[in-house]
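To the wet lab folks,

You asked to see what we're planning to order before we commit. Fair enough. Below is the target structure as tokens, and below that is the sequence we designed to fit it. If anything looks off to you, flag it before the synthesis order goes out.
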């Protein structure tokens, strides 16, 4: 089972990833928790280049290709081996983020974004994507408070510093993707209390967990992949 969590800045993805990981551990579901960018050692270097506020001169195409490079390494090194061994994968952002941010947000050619995603993912695609949706105003306010509280890594705020219109385009891109693939992408109201969001996520996953429990050995261990960034 390959699960991804998506959404604009400040939507609460990280909180829900952590809660979901704890739940899977309690249910003894073998799993890997990872993220993009930066889910591998090499990806950590790419993450620092992509998110550093001092790299404002980065061209949109350069940014797109760096995300594709990070994803190719991530799929080959972390995601494919985990799935092949029978573990679930929970990933904070994946290819949909590139379509939303670099395609809709930056205005990169959507066909090019799609083709690069196909190459980088090597055919590996999420079984379920949880889109945590909130208004741009709510998301940016949360992100800013998180930065001021020191909860975000120093200097990793290049995207939070983008103009509001950029984030509006990103959100619209995500919602369009959800309309196009409503079976895979489930939209959740990220303005709800985190406990409520978590319960909604569990309600979506419960059938899959029951199938796994009834048909698979539960002896596998938990692996955390946080990268070096």
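Sequence we intend to order:
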């Amino acid at each position: 089972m390959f699960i991804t969590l998506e959404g604009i800045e400040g939507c609460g993805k990280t909180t829900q990833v952590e809660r979901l990981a704890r739940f899977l551990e309690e249910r003894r579901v073998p799993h890997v928790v990872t993220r993009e960018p930066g889910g591998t050692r090499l990806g950590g270097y790419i993450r620092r280049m992509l998110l550093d506020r001092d790299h404002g001169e980065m061209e949109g195409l350069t940014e797109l290709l760096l995300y594709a490079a990070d994803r190719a390494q991530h799929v080959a090194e972390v995601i494919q081996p985990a799935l092949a061994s029978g573990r679930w994968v929970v990933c904070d952002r994946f290819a949909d983020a590139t379509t939303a941010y670099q395609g809709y947000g930056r205005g990169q050619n959507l066909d090019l974004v799609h083709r690069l995603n196909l190459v980088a993912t090597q055919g590996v695609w999420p079984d379920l994507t949880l889109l945590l949706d909130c208004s741009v105003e709510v998301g940016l306010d949360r992100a800013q408070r998180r930065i001021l509280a020191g909860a975000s890594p120093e200097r990793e705020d290049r995207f939070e510093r983008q103009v509001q219109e950029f984030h509006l385009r990103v959100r619209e891109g995500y919602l369009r993707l959800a309309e196009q693939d409503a079976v895979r992408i489930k939209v959740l109201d990220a303005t709800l209390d985190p406990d409520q969001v978590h319960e909604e996520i569990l309600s979506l996953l419960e059938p899959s967990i029951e199938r796994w429990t009834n048909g698979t050995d539960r002896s596998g261990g938990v692996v955390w992949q946080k990268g070096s960034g």
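Structural context that might help your review: Residues 60-84 form the longest helix (25 residues). The mean pLDDT is 88.

Thanks,
Computational group
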